[in-house]
Specification:
alpha+beta, 7-stranded antiparallel beta sheet, 13 helices, 21 strands, elongated
């Protein structure tokens, strides 16, 4: 597209000007460090051109931002799109300055360049110290790139600067990105995290990033020369995403086949799955859903129907997804831990149906759902599963969180449920050692019912565990005023007094030590 009449535009603050002759064909522009290929002609303002790649018939290549050309060209070309042609007016400060470039360019010369950006190769410094420079030689597909826990499949070969082969993949190599021993070179681990599926790249690698401290055996075709730089030609064929489900490596999910859409099940969803459970030695210990009818269950119901780690992984899956799930010992039963460090599940999520959303429920449905979740929490608490019980109470409260359209009777029932859920959840928090959260929940109850003995009792317990003895005593005394014959309160009061005595004794010891030290001065 011709645009010879287009006005000049200033670039930066040092006087560089640009007038576009032909607009580019894409939205992308090169970055500093990229290797660009241009046609150009240059002249001193008001004079014939002194140099032209078009006359030679050979494009000119240089790396942006590496001081291979005058600063004005570095700053100008970085603004161009592919196939764009523009006229740049470069002031002396961004050209050869007061010195010039005798005999061709006098001092303080303004230069005019006619530049056409043909293409460029992206070159990235992956380590920030020039240790691994990456140049894309073949574009990949999509936008996603592998992460640290993912398993990648690559082809590669590595050569010295003189072209001598060092090592290569005979066919393909599969390894986990963060597994430093399986990957032949640190540079490859760093590079694959920046690559898209099918991308090809050329890596210029310093010696320290080129070799792992392992025996390559038959992969080595020559001895490693000390301090040698090398070039690695790398292709990312594919990868399998690995998800750390719990954030602590206890449950890892490797996606074998992507699912549909973006939705996934949540607590209370009815799911249908097919899965096989194996020990680390490959022995099958469990199969479900292979008899022509997929296995159906409700996620995180009171009675556990499948392994807890597998259940957590299923909550991250999408319809039709196939995955390999590895469950570590922390989420195995006592019987499973005795003989196994991990269990491996091959699982496919056939379908799922979520619970009816709260905003679609009538008031009576919300109250009934809250009551059901509360009872589920009670059963879990009685079975010693305090964390899951706590989550059930949280879920129960969400159903009655907004009661604007409740009748007076429904509000009364909802308030009773709120009190019960907060109190029971406080008991869970105390069992879990989350004393601060327990006191907050009890305070919520006391805002609704200032004379609730259970709330005062449990808040005093949380204060006592955090050594906030004054607040603990105030709560216990108030509760005893309301219910003077409560045995639990009396026991708690005795514990408080014992702790107060210990605290006084501790303070007396500190005071005595201070006096003795002062006497020695």
């Amino acid at each position: 597209m011709e645009a010879e009449g287009e006005a000049e535009k200033k670039i930066g603050i040092q006087g560089l000007r640009k007038r576009i002759l032909n607009h580019g064909t894409s939205w992308q522009t090169p970055y500093p460090g990229d290797e660009v290929e241009v046609h150009y002609s240059g002249c001193i303002e008001g004079r014939p051109h002194f140099e032209s790649s078009r006359d030679r018939g050979v494009p000119f290549r240089f790396k942006l931002g590496q001081c291979e050309v005058i600063k004005g060209l570095d700053e100008g070309v970085v603004t161009m799109k592919k196939d764009e042609r523009a006229i740049f007016t470069v002031p002396p400060e961004l050209a050869y300055g007061e010195v010039g470039s005798p005999p061709l360019i006098p001092p303080n010369s303004v230069l005019i360049f006619d530049i056409e950006l043909l293409q460029w190769s992206s070159i990235r410094d992956l380590t920030g110290d020039g240790g691994v420079l990456k140049k894309i030689t073949g574009e990949g597909k999509g936008w996603a790139t592998p992460k640290d826990d993912d398993q990648v499949l690559v082809k590669y070969n590595a050569r010295f600067e003189n072209g001598q082969l060092i090592f290569e993949s005979d066919q393909c190599l599969e390894f986990y990105v963060n597994d430093g021993h399986a990957c032949p070179a640190p540079a490859i681990s760093k590079a694959v995290k920046t690559m898209r599926k099918g991308e090809k790249a050329e890596l210029v690698v310093k010696f320290s990033y080129g070799f792992n401290q392992i025996d390559y055996g038959s992969k080595m075709s020559t001895e490693i020369l000390p301090n040698s730089n090398l070039t690695i030609y790398l292709e990312l064929l594919s990868w399998k995403s690995v998800i750390d489900v719990c954030g602590n490596k206890e449950v890892l999910k490797k996606i074998v086949k992507d699912g549909e859409g973006l939705n996934h099940p949540d607590e209370g969803s009815t799911v249908t799955v097919i899965y096989t459970g194996k020990h680390e030695d490959g022995a099958v210990f469990e199969k479900k859903g292979y008899d022509g009818k997929p296995f159906e269950f409700i996620c995180f119901e009171v009675e556990e129907q499948i392994n807890e780690g597998l259940e957590k992984a299923i909550l991250t899956m999408r319809k039709g997804e196939q995955a390999l799930v590895i469950v570590r010992s922390n989420l195995l039963s006592d019987e499973e831990v005795i003989e196994n460090k991990a269990l491996i599940y091959e699982v496919e999520l056939i379908d799922f149906t979520k619970e009816k959303p709260v905003w679609k429920m009538e008031s009576t449905e919300k109250i009934e759902a809250c009551e059901r979740k509360k009872l589920d929490g009670n059963s879990l608490f009685n079975n010693g599963k305090f964390l899951r019980a706590s989550k059930k109470y949280d879920k129960a409260l969400k159903y009655i969180e907004f009661d604007h359209f409740f009748t007076d009777q429904e509000k009364s029932v909802a308030n009773s449920l709120k009190l019960s859920c907060h109190l029971n959840n406080a008991a869970c928090k105390l069992k879990l050692g989350n004393h601060g959260e327990a006191s907050v929940l009890c305070t919520k109850v006391l805002e609704l019912d200032p004379f609730n003995v259970k709330a005062l009792y449990r808040r005093s317990q949380s204060y006592l565990r955090t050594s906030d003895l004054e607040k603990a005593e105030a709560d216990i005394k108030k509760a005893l005023t309301i219910d003077p014959n409560n045995r639990d309160l009396k026991v708690e009061y005795k514990l408080l007094k014992d702790k107060q005595k210990e605290h006084l004794k501790y303070q007396a010891g500190i005071f005595t030590t201070m006096l003795s030290r002062m006497a020695q001065v």
